[in-house]
Amino acid sequence: MTVPAEARCMLMRGGTSKGAYFLAEDLPADAGARDDLLLRVMGSPDPRQIDGLGGAHPLTSKVAVVSASADPEADVDYLFLQVGVDRPEVSDRQNCGNLLAGVGPFAVERGLVAAGDGRTSVRLRMVNSGDFAVASFPTPGGRVDYSGTAEISGVPGTAAPVVIEFPQGSGPLLPTGHARDIVADTPVTCVDNGMPTVLIAAASLKVTGYESPKDLEEDLTLADRLREIRLEAGKLMGLGDVEGTTVPKLSLLAAPLDGGAVMTRTFIPVRCHTSIGVLGAASVAAGLRVEGGVGEGVARLPAQGDRLRIEHPSGFLDIESGIAYDAEGVPVARRTAVVRTARKIFDGTVFARPAGAAPHL
Ligand code: NQM
Question: Which residue, 132, 138, 137, is CA-closest to 69?
Answer without folding.
Answer: 132
